Amino acid sequence: MAVDQVLLDAIAEVLPFADFSLGKQTNDRAYEAFILALCQQAVREAVDGQAAAHTIGGGPAPFVFRGRYGAINSEARNYGYFACTLGNLQFEIHLSLQIEGKSSVKHEVDVSFISAEAAATCRDQEEPSYPTHDDLIGAWECKCFLGHHSLAEPLEDDDLNKVGMDMARQFVGVLVDMGYYRVAGLASLGPTGAGVGTYLAYMAQRQLFAGLMPDNVVEIESFKNHVVQFLGGHAENGA
């Protein structure tokens, strides 16, 4: 199945450049790329924020969104990331990394905010290198569930699979092994099951953004404000 054109157009509209490709041609990967694009846009639009595109090859293009989870220094393709500053906080935004938890188990993180110093150290390693929970500033879990539908057609809530409590529990489990950091939450293209938002807020003080799709301007602005607000709090606390 071809990647939904509305999602591809939304990524292109948000990114500050046009030369990009998906490492894996699926709607799930496209949605994760869309969420990463919104995160870098939020930083760029902040008063004291900057976000610059880089690739593992050194230049800004061609910018490849990772198609599978792996090491931050993988050179399998010209994987891209954003080097960011917000106030005195220096960090990078990555897609589809494996990150080592406190248990030493590696977890797959859709969109991650990594300390710039730690990311640079990992890239200097010859062997596959993975950031650890101490390097992680924040993370977003992304759920698409578009299935055979298209964003170009009118969609009802029943057309999209819901994020259920089992997925919420899995996400909280990852957070526990990573430690509790400031910028984290779950972004979903469609609706969620009963109680998911309440559960995330109670168990992990994490935000749920349901219905976060390209034409939902209100939810997009709320999401970007949330990202900047909590990154700013992280910078102020020096944590």
Structure description:
By secondary structure, this protein is of the alpha/beta class. It has a single domain (5-237), classed as Trna Endonuclease, Chain: A, domain 1 (3-Layer(aba) Sandwich). Helix content is 34%, strand content 25%. It has six helices and nine strands. It has helices at residues 5-14, 27-45, 116-123, 165-178, 196-204, 217-237, and strands spanning 20-22, 49-55, 63-65, 80-86, 89-100, 106-115, 136-143, 183-188, 207-210. Strands 2-4-5-6-7-8-9 form a seven-stranded mixed beta sheet, sandwiched between helices. A two-stranded parallel ribbon has the order 1-3. The longest helix has 21 residues, at 217-237. The protein is globular and about 50 Å long. The termini are far apart. The mean pLDDT is 87.
Provide tags for this entry.
single chain, 239 residues, alpha/beta, Trna Endonuclease, Chain: A, domain 1, 7-stranded mixed β-sheet, two-stranded parallel ribbon, 25% strand, globular
Give the structure's gist in a few sentences.
This protein is α/β, with parallel strands linked by helices.
Q: Largest sheet, order of strands side by side?
A: 2-4-5-6-7-8-9
Radius of gyration, CA atoms, in whole angstroms: 17 Å
| Overall pLDDT metric | 87
User: What is the CA–CA distance across the termini?
Assistant: 43 Å
Say how many strands there are.
9
Oligomeric nature of the chains: single chain
Helix content: 25-40%
Q: Main sheet, how many strands, which sense, barrel?
A: 7 strands, mixed
CATH architecture: 3-Layer(aba) Sandwich
Number of domains: 1
CATH top level assignment: Alpha Beta
Strand content: 25-35%
Q: By helix and strand content, what is the structural category? A: alpha/beta
CATH level 3 topology: Trna Endonuclease, Chain: A, domain 1
Order of helices and strands: HEHEEEEEHEHEHEH
Shape: globular
Structure annotation, total helices: 6
List low-pLDDT spans.
Answer: none
